[in-house]
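Follow-up to my earlier ticket, as requested here are the two runs.
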Amino acid sequence: QVQIVESGGGLVQPGGSLRLSCTVSGNIIFTNAVYTWYRQTPGKQRDWVSTIGPGNPAWTNHADSVKGRFTIFRDDTKKTIYLRMNNVKLDDTAVYYCEVDGHWGQGTQVTVSS
């Protein structure tokens, strides 16, 4: 089994910053896996946000809607994936989920509001 715990969500003003964390444990070789952040708002499908691969340096990819504002990175010593969110917008309000090998966390709420 794989356990995923997201954290770091909260209320942030437009233009502000936030850092989400995704800590992974269980039956997985952390350094070899590909990790992805998704987000979802009520009544809508879950959308892809960012992905990071293995290796050093690790390859990354971001959705156009967050490119240049969000950065995904990893700390293998802490078995944690991060999503740094800068210059957030109202449309970034969502529950953010971390996924690896089909395993999902419970999500962390991000609310952008003035």
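Run two:
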Amino acid sequence: QVQLEESGGGSVQAGGSLRLSCAVSGYRFSSGCMAWFREAPGNQREAVAAIDGGGSTTYAASVEGRFTISKDSAKKILYLEMDSLKPEDTGMYYCATGESYTSEYVIANVRYGMDYWGKGTLVTVSS
């Protein structure tokens, strides 16, 4: 049974930083694509960062240069380092896995169609 559990969300002022973690169990961590999505109130879910089995990363234009996705295969943890946070980064952040996707495809095309999802962690950025 695949389980994903996010942590690390919280409240921060604009310009601050947060690091999200996603603990993964029951999943072949070294294969497939893993990604971070966010969903703000009234908005559709969007992919913000993805990393595929080979380690290639892709970012949404809105977070390029500010967010960094990484994974620790030994610990089976996916990370999202978020710097220079803006109020528009506020939302629920979810980690997800997609076995047959590339990171580029996830960022460009996927909103809800990943294989497994965590329950999310809330990020609030105040101005």
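The only thing I checked on run two: The first helix runs from residue 103 to 109. Let me know what else you need.
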